[in-house]
Amino acid sequence: VWNEVLDRVSEHINAPSLKVWFEGTRPVQLYEDGLEISVPNTFAKEYIESRFRPLLEEALDGVLGQEETSIIVSVGGQGRRAGREETSAETGAESVLSARTPRSLKAKYTFDSFVIGAGNRFAHAAALAVAENPGVVYNPLFIYGGVGLGKTHLLRAVGHYVEDQDPTMRVRYVTCEQFTNDFINSMRDNAPLEFQKRYRENDVLLIDDIQFLENKVETQEAFFHTFNALYEENKQIVIASDRHPKYLQTLENRLVSRFEWGLVTDIQPPDLETRIAILRKKAMMDRLEVDDEVLTFIASKVSTNIRELEGALVRILAYASLYGRQVTVALAEEVLRDILPDSDYREIPIELIQHEVCRYFGISKEDLVGTSRSKAFAYPRQVAMYLSRELTDESLPKIGKAFGGRDHSTVMHATNKIANLINSDRDTFNQIHEITYHIKSKR
Ligand code: ADP
Ligand code: MG
Prior knowledge:
By secondary structure, this protein is α/β, with parallel strands linked by helices. Helices cover 60% and strands 10% of the residues. The chain is flat, with a radius of gyration of 25 Å. Residues 78-105 have low confidence and may be disordered. The structure holds adenosine-5'-diphosphate and magnesium ion. Adenosine-5'-diphosphate is lined by residues 67, 109, 113-115, 120, 147-153, 278, 306-307, 310.
């Protein structure tokens, strides 16, 4: 496993540093959801923990095919390794491993680590409500949205929360893939009861990426029965999907209609403020010191996928440490230019934003940047200023200038106002989302 992890990180760390930092490391112990490695000294431990842990964990996620793995770094592997080999000679490696294997090392995906913003406010509230009262409020809870927007995070958070509140609650998180494999294996082994037991004897069942149930007729059937059994006993079901149930085209209607019995809610991409907040939280949790300016820059460049957002931060830090450089906006720019696809990086001109806003509201550019305070113009103007702040790197004064020479406090006021509206009002949120979509597709 460790070699595979190294293989993966070697794409992001240059060969000399890989040699310097990882030559002396050894895998010590594999856990269900993590890997312990040992390093020669505390200096290496601190260095690896502070610089590479996120990158290593990302790689380990991939290798283990899980989403929440941890890397533990300990000092002085030799003794421990030898010790383990001794014991395993007596008792067999397997049993030693399981005896010492904690079920879970730490929970990364919790409500505490989830940053709330316009795009996920409803989904978060629903998930929390469900976690507080499983089986009572919304059943099933169906969360859908694009890649890397926090669906898995919310599902896991529900699970952790329920377990923390009441350790006797039986919670099971599975991906649709696991469910499918379990089902197929149970057919093969002729053990349908075991399968039923595993899935029906839960208080909370969390099923991730349900879209993969498409085209699997028999597994759908199995899921249908599981669903009914749980539902009838008021057991909580939470489902994540990349799209709305009605677009799960080849799913049986009776399943789709059941998904709509409870609450269906979406997750939308985070706005700039939320993206900055997510990076801040991430930096704080990993105890990384990064200037706000740099975080803001990253957040402005990576806009549609939170996994990539976090990945960008990690890569910039890794790069800086490898080349002994300060983490500055200039450095971030250099690194991001390499890793971002052109389309994400291409600048959006303010004129394009103004053009699309005018088109959307059916007003002229003159009125948009003009002096009229009539709501018909003032509101679109505020929206356009907000979007200029959101989608470009231009400073407040620059934006003000593009809007008929307004000063920066006007732009700030407009930006805050729209940001608040987005947070409190679903229609505004959808409207801004739609305009943003138009702008991005014309870039
Ligand atoms: P999805 O399942 O929707 O593809 P994930 O739940 O795996 O996305 O999220 C991708 C990454 O982004 C994870 O590391 C997750 O912790 C992080 N993330 C997503 N949303 C948030 C949020 N609102 N606050 C903090 N981190 C988030
Ligand atoms: Mg996911």
